[in-house]
Amino acid sequence: MLSFDSTDFDSTAAYLDELAAYVAVPSVSRDASAETMRTAAEWLAAQLSFAGGRVVATEGHPIVRGEWLGAPGAPTILVYGHYDVQPTGDPAEWRTPPFELRVDGDVIRGRGVTDDKGPVFIVLKVAQAFIEQEGALPLNVKFLFEGEEEIGSPHLPAYLREHADELAADLVISADGAMWRPSEPSLSIASKGLVTLTVEVGGAATDLHSGRYGGTVANPVHALSEILAGLHTADGRVAVDGFYDGIPELSDERRAAIAAVPFDDDRYRDDLGLDALFGEAGYSTLERLWERPTLEINGVLTGGKYTVIPHVATAHISCRLVPGQRPERVLQAITDHVLAQKIPGVRVAVRPDEGGVPAYTIPADHPAIRAATEALAHVYPGQDVLLAVIAGTLPATALFEEVLGAKTLFFSFSTADENLHAPNEFMRISRLREGMRAWERLWRLLADGPHRLAPVHRDGTR
């Protein structure tokens, strides 16, 4: 067993000091400079010196690669994560400066600390401890850390296809993808897919004085509101013909399994500061969260607090998909639905975004799930390991399966309540060493014993 107290880092404070340097790099992929993004990538590459860590250019932000292949005959895994982070939002909403790692009781705060810099840091420390204490890793490990996950990984597909032979592995393990909640250890056996689009309604050639022209022309804001209101029925069901095509019926067995998961609707509601929950009728809150697709209006841009009739109104929409749905068909169904609403006096356009992602699943009896379950049970004795679903989307999973023929195991020590993408992002300090112990155990289990990985051939067979 590795010791995470007898390496060069002999205290939690030392781990936090090192992680603080990583968090301090404001690697916001949406708008950071190329120099800033490269600084974050170089920090990671330096941590992978034992594996030939290097920064590799792409058409966008660079990728960090490394590999340690000193275990002949052992399985090979590909560890995936990302070094980019979300924008901070309004700095006034943060308790502490976003890019200064701060200890706040039993948690640490800072942008990216739980998505995904802290979870990646855990893997790095485990790999370094193996090399320092045992001189080798128990299996062959390749590392791939990207800088564009938070903007949809636009350049990862081309890079992965170009370097598929170099990145071939028996399993991908993602340090990204949070546990369900802090009350019990969990593994995710699925994640939802994603499509996004924009609906634009145009009217006159320019904004108009609401007194001089009001009542004589169509108002794009009114028209857009009508369109958006027509996307759902009053009971929360998506009112788009074809939206639910391909989704299998939720089985009695699955419903029973979900019902057996301890879940308090009242607490969930109260934690969100609401007086009522709402969603598709006929399903429980947890069934809607894990098993049902969604269509959400993410933002509306138009006009302002001044007396004009705006000449254009725009809405941004996202849909989270479940197994059985095809991204291109969902986009087409929504487009057809919107354009079928003939509203006089305005022009309506639907612009689907590129990069739709299908839902992802890994069988509950996959060797990686069995090994990960045992690893978590070792670190959290006496607690049941919950098999959950990530309601969000990790675009790389479908890509890894398509290009490498390998399933992805989510093994993150982030938890879903840690303000991912929001102000005051945090991570529980205890998760650092818990994660290190679990990753160590997982690697040993995958390398040997009843959960040892079988090699995957390029055609996907074993």
Automatic annotation (TrEMBL):
Its EC number is 3.4.13.-. One of its GO terms (molecular function) is dipeptidase activity. This is Dipeptidase. It holds the Pfam family Peptidase_M20. Residues 190-340 form the Peptidase M20 dimerisation domain. PANTHER family: BETA-ALA-HIS DIPEPTIDASE, SUCCINYL-DIAMINOPIMELATE DESUCCINYLASE. It comes from the Bacteria. The keyword Protease applies. InterPro entries: Cyt/Met_Dipeptidase (IPR051458), Peptidase_M20 (IPR002933), Peptidase_M20_dimer (IPR011650). SUPFAM superfamilies: Zn-dependent exopeptidases. It is an enzyme of class 3 (hydrolase). Gene3D superfamilies: 3.30.70.360, Zn peptidases.
